[in-house]
Inverse folding.
């Protein structure tokens, strides 16, 4: 029997490395519109690693890692853009690796709620729920993800109808402000 070495590693204390792993950086200026008050500088806000061997069609999977930096925009917590899936038949699984976060959910009626994300937490995301990660800790929030290659990302619906809450980190704790 032929035994081959793995092509790709997901280092739980590091990143995804190997053949055909994609790496993208997101800068603050690209997502500044998300925040109530804008910063003047342009730091890295999150990094995304992704890996697939599949095509964009039913039955194929992506694996990914998001690293969300512990920065604030005038006390508002760093967040991903958030999205619905274009194909709402496609669910997704998130996996907490490090840090402290919130996974914001929003259903199609705009109802918004959150689940805590921490090392080892597992999150099943229904295909009809928009999802956004928020770093509420003091270190990198690292979250693994597995999703269908034909899920697609619908960011436009979020621009038109945002998640129901903004999340701020105050001196005495988190504050959730309804939009
Ligand atoms: Fe997704």
């Amino acid at each position: 029997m032929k035994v081959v070495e793995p092509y790709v590693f997901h280092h739980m204390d590091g990143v995804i490395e190997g053949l055909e792993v994609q790496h993208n950086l997101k800068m603050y200026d690209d997502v500044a519109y998300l925040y109530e008050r804008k910063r003047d500088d342009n730091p890295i806000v999150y990094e995304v690693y992704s890996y697939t061997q599949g095509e964009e069609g039913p039955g194929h999977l992506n694996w990914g890692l998001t690293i969300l930096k512990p920065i604030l925009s005038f006390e508002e917590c760093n967040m991903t853009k958030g999205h619905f899936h274009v194909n709402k038949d496609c669910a997704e699984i998130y996996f907490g690796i490090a840090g402290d976060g919130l996974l914001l959910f929003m259903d199609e009626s705009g109802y918004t709620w959150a689940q805590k994300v921490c090392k080892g937490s597992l999150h099943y995301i229904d295909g009809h729920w928009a999802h956004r990660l928020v770093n509420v800790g003091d270190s990198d929030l690292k979250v693994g993800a597995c999703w269908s290659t034909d899920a697609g990302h619908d960011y436009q619906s979020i621009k038109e109808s945002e998640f129901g809450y903004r999340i701020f980190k105050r001196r005495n704790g988190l504050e959730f402000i309804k939009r």
